[in-house]
Design goal:
Shape: globular
Oligomer: single chain
Order of helices and strands: HEEEEEEEE
Distance between the termini: 24 Å
Mean pLDDT: 87
Radius of gyration: 16 Å
C-alpha cells in the first residue's frame, strides 16, 4: 500500500524540480508526528510560510528544506477520524533494517525538538537568497536561515506535510489501528 505512495511522492518531487508541478498543495487538515533517533544532512534551509487546508484554513509552518537526509530510523503517525472512531495511521522504517534516506526533503513543520549541531549557520538571511538546498527559498524580504552540515539527535516534530525525492525506507512497517499508539 505504501509503495505506490512513495513512488507518487518521488514522481511529484521530480516534477516539481523540473518545474512541471507547483510545489504547493492543500494539506489535509490533520498534522502528524515525526520522530527519529538521529537526522544528518549536508545543507538546510528554512523560512516561515502558511500552509492551507482544502477548507482554506491557514497553518503557520516553518518550511524546512534538507538536502540529503539520512535518518537512523523514522516514525510518522497521524490520528484520523473515521466511522469506527479515531484511527491511528503509523509508518515506521529504519533501525535494524538500515538507514532511511531522502533527497531534497521538505517538511512543513510546526515545531522541531532535538539536540542540534549546525555548520556554517546564516540566521536572518533573506529567504529569497537561500541556496544551501537547491530549489528551497522564500519570498524576498522574508526571514530565513540556512546551514551547512547538520545533525539533530532525538528528533521530535509535528508537521503538516513532507515531500521529497528518492526515498529509501528499509524495513518499512505501515499499520492502521484503533490502539491510539503514535510515535510519542
Amino acid at each position: 500500500m505504501a509503495v505506490p505512495a512513495v513512488v507518487a511522492v518521488g514522481a511529484m518531487a521530480t516534477a516539481m524540480a523540473h518545474g512541471a508541478l507547483a510545489a504547493s498543495f492543500a494539506v489535509s487538515g490533520t498534522n502528524f508526528q515525526v520522530t527519529s533517533g538521529k537526522l544528518t544532512s549536508k545543507g538546510l534551509s528554512s523560512f516561515v510560510q502558511t500552509d492551507r487546508s482544502a477548507d482554506g484554513k491557514g497553518h503557520p509552518v516553518s518550511l524546512l528544506g534538507i538536502g540529503e537526509a539520512r535518518l537512523s530510523d523514522i516514525c510518522q503517525a497521524a490520528s484520523v477520524r473515521t466511522p469506527l472512531g479515531e484511527v491511528t495511521f503509523r509508518l515506521r522504517a529504519g533501525g535494524d533494517a538500515g538507514e532511511v534516506s531522502a533527497s531534497r526533503l521538505v517538511i512543513d513543520g510546526e515545531d522541531l525538538v532535538g539536540d542540534a549541531t549546525f555548520g556554517t549557520a546564516q540566521i536572518g538571511r533573506d529567504a529569497s537568497t537561500l541556496d544551501a538546498v537547491p530549489g528551497v527559498g522564500g519570498d524576498a524580504g522574508a526571514f530565513g536561515l540556512q546551514a551547512g552540515d547538520i545533525t539533530v539527535a532525538g528528533v521530535r516534530s509535528h508537521a503538516w506535510s513532507a515531500t521529497g525525492g528518492n526515498f529509501r525506507l528499509p524495513g518499512l512497517r505501515l499499520d492502521v489501528g484503533l490502539d491510539g499508539k503514535k510515535c510519542f
